[in-house]
Write a structure and sequence with these properties.
single chain; 48 residues; mainly alpha; 2 helices; 0% strand; globular
Length: 48
């Protein structure tokens, strides 16, 4: 995974109460970001 993915994933994992796994590929990190954004509500655009 990239440095930016690792940093963001650490934040998402902490907010979701999940233990961070530093041994994921770039593709796996992208998938986990999507999953954790849905779980934490991050990354969703505000609708008016």
């Amino acid at each position: 995974m990239t440095g930016a993915q690792a940093s963001y994933l650490q934040t998402l994992f902490r907010e979701a109460g999940v233990e961070f796994d530093p041994n994921v590929t770039k593709a796996e990190a992208s998938k986990r970001i999507d999953e954790l954004q849905a779980k934490t509500g991050r990354g969703q655009q505000q609708r008016e």
